[in-house]
Amino acid sequence: MAERAAFGGQRAAVDAGARRLRLALAVLLIWALIAFALALQGYLTARSAGRPQDWWPSFGYSLAIFSIWAALTWPMLLAVRWIEARALGAALRALLYAAGLAVVAAAHVGLFAALYWPLYNDGGRIASRWAMGEIMFVRNLGTNAILYAVVVLASRWSHRREQPAPAAVGHLRARRRGGVRLVALDEVEWIGAAGNHAEAHTASGAILLDDPLARLEQMLPANAFARVHRGAIVRLDRIAELRSLGRGDAEIRLRSGHRLRLSRRYRTAISAWLSGR
């Protein structure tokens, strides 16, 4: 049994190493293709303008630029995963990503100047690596911002795809100073959006929860809760009346007397629950 577990651990390590190698090769290939495409665009644009340029020096310069991007991609992926793995508010995440742009743009031009200044110093007219870095930072800030945004968005998408679907819960975690309050599902009548979080509405009042509404929709048991609007989830057995408003919309009256709007986009879940009663 121990040998089987050890073998399984070795196999997992080998698979993880193979995945990292495939990712590294994919990153190199993508940046090489981007370098080729931009070099080709510059080459054809120069020819059409009557200022033909040699292909290989142009392609070599493009490869040099994007070799730095290839080197920066892995640290960027790790940084995005670190940010996304933490329950940070939207404002703090935006601040971190904005700071990341400044760091990555500076790192890109700094590494390029450090490595390639002897080759691309314009025949000695760019006096130092520092001078090259200053020139490149201004000239390439827009392009670097676009490429940075593409890498960040792709990394966020990949990270979220890898996350397992949340398991159904028997209670909700509420925010409370100095500790955590657990709210039993039986206490909840409906849940409303509250910025980056959500509020559970109970007989004793509204309680601020740790999770946003979209995540709660995945976590809550589908046979007991349903999304009725982009800003609300309702406990099905608390529905007292459903009244049509026309055009597929409806109004839900809960047992407490509270009223919620049912959007036609989310009517399917309610209809399935009603048909099963």
What would you say this structure looks like, in words?
By secondary structure, the protein is α+β, with helices and mostly antiparallel strands. 56% of the residues lie in helices and 21% in strands. The strands form three sheets. A five-stranded antiparallel sheet has the order 5-4-3-7-6. Strands 8-9-10 form a three-stranded antiparallel sheet, with no helix packed on it. A hairpin with a 2-residue loop joins strand 6 (225-229) and strand 7. Helix 1 (2-48) packs across helix 2 and helix 3 packs across helix 4.
Describe what is shown at a glance.
The protein is of the alpha+beta class. 56% of the residues lie in helices and 21% in strands. It has 2 domains: 26-162, no CATH class; 171-275, Beta Barrel (OB fold (Dihydrolipoamide Acetyltransferase, E2P)).
Q: Which features would summarize this protein structure in a list?
A:
single chain; alpha+beta; OB fold (Dihydrolipoamide Acetyltransferase, E2P); 2 domains; 5-stranded antiparallel sheet; 6 helices; 10 strands; 56% helix
